[in-house]
Design a protein that fits this description.
Layout: E1 10-14, E2 20-22, E3 27-40, E4 51-65, H1 74-84, E5 88-93, E6 102-116, E7 124-131, E8 137-140
Antiparallel strand pairs: 1-2, 1-5, 3-4, 4-7, 5-6, 6-7, 6-8
């Protein structure tokens, strides 16, 4: 069974001007959560739960390190996206950007961007994007 190391993950985010930017150099964590809100239609007298397939949703969250001097780095990109309130295209390749690797794409709105500066550590960032409409697209890196 093939295994994949997280260090190879790559995430591309379209900035507020529509340019695709690689944020991987400043990041150390990505979580893609794909959920479905199934509807409970269980009736009286049954012993088991009965559900209908519900609507899907996706959330992409990430974390990394604050980099104020890089004009195309994670802070500059996320600050621009948060200010513009624009839909953002995100491409996430969990196994890396080598041809043939799985590529997961979607359109998102940023819902959270935080900067944390502990006295005894590096200044960190965290963000969350929520899918806008449609479904995730699963393809391969070309």
């Amino acid at each position: 069974m093939p295994k994949v190391h997280g260090k190879n993950s790559v995430i591309f985010v379209s900035d507020s001007g529509g340019t695709c930017r690689n944020l991987s150099g400043d990041m150390n964590n990505v979580v893609l959560s794909w959920t479905r809100a199934n509807v409970d239609v269980t009736v009286f007298g049954t012993c088991d739960v009965d559900r209908l397939p519900g609507i899907r949703d996706a959330t992409l969250a990430g974390a990394g390190f604050y980099n104020e001097t890089d004009t195309t780095g994670i802070h500059a990109i996320l600050e621009g996206i948060m200010s513009s309130s624009a839909t953002t295209c995100i491409n996430y390749a969990p196994a890396g950007s080598v041809s043939g690797c799985r590529l997961i794409s979607g359109c998102y709105l940023i819902s959270d961007y935080s900067i944390t500066g502990p006295i005894g550590g590096a200044v960190a960032i965290a963000f969350t994007f929520q899918q806008t409409a449609g479904s995730l697209i699963f393809g391969s890196v070309t």
